[in-house]
Amino acid sequence: MIVLGSTSEVAQAFVEKALQEGEKFGKIYLFTSNKETTERFARHIDVKFLQQSEVIEIDLMKEIDYTTFDHVSSNVLFCAVGYLGDGTEEGLYDNRNTERIININYSKLIPVMNYFAQKFESRRSGTIIGLSSVAGDRGRQSNFIYGSAKAAFTAYLSGLRNYLFEKKVHVLTVKPGFMATKMTEGLPLNPKLTATPKQAAACIYKAFKKQKNVAYVLPVWSIIMMIIRNIPEFIFKKLKL
């Protein structure tokens, strides 16, 4: 398995869920910008599951030398790359914050996704799982920079799914709602609408095995976002969402 964003609690929970379910991986490639943290997780799955892994440093804010991971080959790619950034008014007009949100969630990520998608296509097999967000379903004043990047990522995954279908490669788009992770720590989240990483992993694994196209981690979010998407614009623009 290839894991992009392997410091993500959801990514790590998914790896553990897959191993607990008996999935066999010759090697798990853990791509990360935080080598020290990821190496701890690598040791954990080695001890608990006797799972061999390789930690590979990657920084989306720097130029990437793709030749350093030419050797990486797998039948499953799990992308949990994400950066929420500063969603306040100050953050909105901070161009460095804006560029980082867009670069990490979309513009610098897509070439990496394409690099591996081409490998999957040439092999004519595999599954690509991408964590997008309900924030990408409609732009809302509270997080529309982040939401716009996730909307672009959702559109990318949709097009990739369409393109790779005849090549026998499955693409799964995951749309978590509120998640109890480091990224959302301190935010006032409704517990009834918030999933834990373990809950998310279980949902994603089920969707992976059923070869679903799109999966909301908590089903209630599909209803919530359907309602939000269908609010007329002349009303929606006046709302505080």
Rg over CA atoms: 18 Å
* Overall pLDDT score: 94
Helix and strand sequence: EHEHEEHHHEHEEEHEHH
List unreliable stretches of 5+ residues: none
Report the strand count: 9
Number of helices: 9
Considering DSSP H and I runs of 4 or more, what fraction of the residues is helical?
Answer: 40-55%
Beginning-to-end CA distance, first to last residue: 37 Å
Biggest beta sheet attributes: 7 strands, parallel
Please explain how this structure is put together:
The protein has 241 residues and is of the alpha/beta class. It has nine helices and nine strands. The strands form two sheets. Strands 3-2-1-4-5-6-9 form a seven-stranded parallel sheet, sandwiched between helices. It has a two-stranded parallel sheet with strand order 7-8. β1, α1 and β2 (28-32) form a beta-alpha-beta unit. α1 (9-20) crosses α7 and α4 (95-107) packs parallel to α6. The longest helix has 21 residues, at 144-164. The N and C termini lie far apart (37 Å). 37% of the residues are buried. The model has no long low-confidence stretch (mean pLDDT 94).
